[in-house]
Write a structure and sequence with these properties.
Elements: E1 2-6, H1 12-22, E2 27-33, H2 39-45, E3 51-55, H3 64-75, E4 83-87, E5 110-116, H4 120-123, H5 127-138, E6 142-146, H6 153-166, E7 172-173, H7 179-183, E8 207-212, H8 219-227, E9 233-241, E10 247-253, E11 256-262, E12 276-281
Parallel strand pairs: 1-4, 1-5, 2-3, 2-4, 5-6, 6-7
Antiparallel strand pairs: 8-12, 9-10, 9-12, 10-11
Bound molecules: guanosine-5'-triphosphate, magnesium ion and zinc ion.
Length: 284
């Protein structure tokens, strides 16, 4: 079992899709998305059938029954996968889910924490994301730096210094290619202790909202909609289908806001996953 952790929008789903594209053996994926709609499960499932979702809450705070049931379901398969990759929610503390890796039939391969170097310094100025990121880095066997293409060498060096100060003995990976291969088969936990469970109270303090995307919204209108979201929004995502049948994916990660087309061939038929933005803010 491999846990992929990292703050909201750090690039977890992107990494898992990369990893599945190059996998040479059966991998099952369990995806926890805090919103009421599991956009990530959809984005993974359209390329890879074997995806289980945990939706509407954080697995480390409130969805542990669901996690247990998913593990039972995977174990009971006639041909169980070689590897289970778990995408934790962006607000999860990996230390709170580690004990699940001792479920019968599983062993822990490692905790990989992604850090968006492009927005690390902004995130660390607010106590809620800062505590979340610190806990995630603290629990990591490996820290993978992401968004290297969006930033400069100076920012990367500052991020590395900040992360090294938080976790001096944890390897930092900053290779833009081959990351997927580098994060599986860590061969067990670097530090095999399972500390007492930290309290959940620190983590799930983000505010999650749903914003309807009006029928007929096209690319331009969707971009306008996300550009109008308040600046305290740390994460938003959603899919809509316009009048021509084209599907658009909106992605907000802090100050970065984009709309991209979902290729028709990759469109799932689950209508339920469209027409709404999941918006996550910090409390006032
Ligand atoms: N430029 C750039 N964009 C990236 C990189 N990794 C991820 N992204 C983009 O960042 C946005 C968020 O990526 P996701 O993979 O959905 O992030 P996540 O950690 O799964 O997000 P949550 O599950 O919502 O916490 C998307 O628009 C990605 O295309 C990267 O290395 N470089
Ligand atoms: Mg994701
Ligand atoms: Zn949680």
């Amino acid at each position: 079992m491999t846990f992929i952790s990292g703050y909201l929008g750090a690039g977890k789903t992107t990494l898992i899709n990369e990893l599945l594209a190059t996998a040479d053996r059966p991998i099952a994926v369990l995806v926890n998305d805090v919103g009421a709609i599991n956009i990530d499960a959809r984005l993974i499932r359209r390329r890879h059938g074997d995806t289980i979702e945990l939706t509407d809450g954080c697995v480390c705070c409130s969805l542990s029954d669901g996690f247990g049931a998913a593990i039972d379901q995977i174990r009971a398969r006639p041909e169980p996968p070689d590897h289970l990759v778990v995408e934790l929610s962006g607000v999860a503390d990996p230390a709170r889910v580690l004990p699940w890796s001792r479920s019968i039939g599983f062993m822990l391969d490692g905790v990989v924490t992604l850090v968006d170097v492009d927005q690390l310094s902004e995130r660390m100025t607010d106590a809620i994301p800062a505590h979340t990121i610190e806990a995630q880095v603290d629990a990591a066997d490996v820290v993978l730096l992401t968004k290297l293409d969006l930033t400069d060498a100076e920012t990367v060096a500052a991020a590395k210094a900040q992360l090294t100060a938080l976790a001096p003995d944890t390897p930092l990976l900053s290779e833009p290619t081959g990351s997927a291969a580098a994060v599986l088969n860590l061969g067990g936990r670097r530090n095999p202790t399972f500390d007492a469970l930290p309290p959940p109270t620190l983590f799930d303090r983000h505010v999650t909202e749903r914003v309807a995307i009006p029928a007929g919204t096209d690319r331009v209108a969707l971009k306008k909609l996300i550009d109008a979201l308040p600046r305290d929004v740390v994460r938003a995502k959603g899919i809509c289908v316009d009048d021509t049948g084209a599907a658009w994916l909106a992605q907000v990660v802090g100050r970065r806001r984009s709309v991209t087309e979902l290729p028709v061939a990759e469109q799932a038929d689950d209508e339920a996953a469209t027409g709404e933005l999941v918006v996550i803010r910090l409390p006032e």
